[in-house]
TrEMBL record:
Organism, as annotated: Actinotalea ferrariae CF5-4
GO cellular component, one term: plasma membrane
Subcellular localization: Cell membrane
Gene that produces this protein: atpC
Protein name in the entry: ATP synthase epsilon chain
Function: Produces ATP from ADP in the presence of a proton gradient across the membrane.
């Protein structure tokens, strides 16, 4: 089964990295959902919640203030100014 390689990075740290089946994020002009095979895109993000569905595990939800999302092939990179994820250590692989 196809999957996405996802990196979620804040200005001060890597928040999450791993394989996922879906990513959704609050783009400036509406929510965007990314599945494997998505066309390349670069989107500006507004404040809201980024949701990552890992290939094995529970959905991860992280509140962000702003940033951007890039999709190239099956690689998704989310770069944000700051996150509120409720924990101090959140990097997983």
């Amino acid at each position: 089964m196809a999957h996405l390689e996802v990196d979620l990075v804040a200005a001060d740290r890597k928040v999450w990295s791993g394989e996922a089946s879906m990513v959704s994020a609050p783009a400036a002009d509406g929510d965007i959902g990314i599945l494997p095979g998505h066309a390349p895109v670069l989107a500006t993000l507004r404040a809201g919640t980024v949701r990552i569905t890992p290939t094995g595990g529970e959905v991860r939800q992280v509140r962000i203030d702003s940033g951007f999302l890039s999709v190239d092939g099956d690689r998704v990179t989310v770069v944000v100014d700051s996150v509120d994820d409720g924990s101090a250590t959140t990097t997983a692989r």
